[in-house]
Design goal:
3 helices
């Protein structure tokens, strides 16, 4: 299931370590949010192929990642002119909640006869607020007559990209906000209007005005009916 690099006789090997000043849970959460970032612009895409629980504490994930594959100037005289600039790598990882460790293995599946690059990353909880990161890289080539050059080029590029990836990872860790979003309640201020009490004289005046309006309406209705009747032609026997 998980690819172990035992048995691979890689000629070129490099490694380096780094300490993230963040809790292990935060570092692992941001592992899935690393891309895109300005320090890893060569990463174009990432897709999850498999994700499942191995047991109640371990999560297994398999992804395919697309990256640019620019050639150095001297490479244009060696490699085919129609060689695509996009390469794909597979990544397998296991997150262990019980032991607070995460291990990922990555290897290219494009142009493996020309160059093979493999990487191992270990994220281990150090203290409650720090996480140890160890990166290891292997480079190999089976191209006849070019093995030494390609192995050196491969491991040099891996180290450069790995260090840039750590810098980008740090920015993602700093920018990712873990605080829960709290919805601010809308404050509605209800103002009670003070309506003054009407005096008896005012009430009588209002009633009188209503009665007059009602009487006027009746008079207008009667007048309209009378005019209508006057316009109606009379039947002559």
């Amino acid at each position: 299931m998980i690819l172990l690099f035992q048995g691979f006789k890689m000629v070129k090997y490099e490694s380096f370590s780094h300490v993230f000043s963040y809790a292990w849970e935060h570092v692992v959460t941001c592992f899935w949010k690393k891309y895109p970032n300005e320090n890893s612009t060569h990463v174009l895409s990432e897709d999850v192929l498999v994700r499942k629980l191995l047991d109640e504490n371990r999560l297994y994930t398999k992804r395919i990642i697309g990256k640019t594959n620019p050639l150095p100037k001297w490479g244009t005289t060696i490699f085919p002119s129609n060689m695509t600039k996009i390469a794909h790598v597979l990544e397998e990882s296991i997150v262990d909640l019980q032991h607070k460790t995460m291990v990922s293995y990555t290897w290219n599946i494009s142009y493996v006869t020309l160059m093979s690059i493999k990487e191992k990353i270990q994220l281990t909880a150090n203290t409650s607020e720090t996480t140890d990161c160890k990166k290891e890289g292997w480079a190999d080539s089976s191209a006849t007559g070019l093995r030494r050059v390609l192995r050196k080029f491969g491991i040099t590029r891996w180290k450069s990209n790995a260090q840039k990836a750590v810098t980008g990872y740090e920015k993602v860790l700093a920018n990712f906000d873990q605080r829960p979003k709290v919805e601010t309640p809308i404050s509605v201020e209800v103002k009670h209007l003070h309506i003054p009490k009407l005096s008896d004289n005012t009430i009588e005046t209002i009633k009188d005005a209503k009665d007059k309006a009602k009487t006027k309406a009746i008079d207008l209705a009667a007048l309209a009916a009378a005019k209508k009747a006057a316009k109606k032609p009379q039947n002559i026997s």
